[in-house]
Amino acid sequence: MKLAITGKGGVGKTLLAALLCKRFVESNYSVTAIDADPDANLAATLGFPYPERIIPISQMANLIEERTGARPGQYAPYFKLNPKVDDIPEKYAVKMDGVRLIRMGGVKGGSTGCYCPENALVEALVAHLLLARNEVVIMDMEAGIEHLGRGTAKSVDNLIVVVEPGRHSVETACSISKLAEDLGLPSVAIVANKVRTQSDNRFLLANLPGSQFLGFVPFDQAIVDADLANLSVLNASQKVVAAVKDIYQTLLATSV
Prior knowledge:
There is one protein chain. The chain is built from 10 helices and 8 strands. Helix content is 41%, strand content 18%. By secondary structure, the chain is an alpha/beta fold. The protein has a single domain, classed as Rossmann fold (3-Layer(aba) Sandwich), CATH 3.40.50. The chain has an 8-stranded mixed sheet, with helices on both faces. Helix 1 (13-26) crosses helix 10 (238-255) and helix 3 (61-68) packs across helix 5 (117-131).
């Protein structure tokens, strides 16, 4: 199963990605977690030691030059658009508690007018992970789908958009859904997070008509308190863990 998780900043997509990684590992799946958000927090949320020391693939200048034939930041009229990447997960991922983690780093959007060698390597690696790996891949993305191209988008089983009750979050979800449609993603689903009341549920259902909702995750102050105390948030709230387990079961059921 290949999952890409996105949404407006602060809605809780990284916590959802981490909890799903944990749940799949507990069910004896092989799991690769991809942190594709430049504001990378997935390693820390999963509890990896010294997450700040994990170097993103897009910043590995020597690797990029070796695989593409061009060094980042230097003028290069020609470089490999399909570099070798199949060995990168084993060589450059970090591993802990059954999860293999890769930090991608930022990619330059098409609007910059630049297609650079680091983009070529990152996009080829994402394509390999989504198309060629027989395992669960969970990608934590920024509020967009820049790491997905037309060739890889259709291999994502679910693009999960995390929303919280609020206009800005809903607007972001609608924009992402439109981009996903343009890329031809076969399935876009919603996870409602930080839900406090039935009014919150009704607001989201009314403002995202026709959307597939995978689940509703309750707000729990215990998550906030654990984060403020620099404690693990993965087991801070049994209500949140239970809701994500239900989402996991829904994902398995809909993938059959």
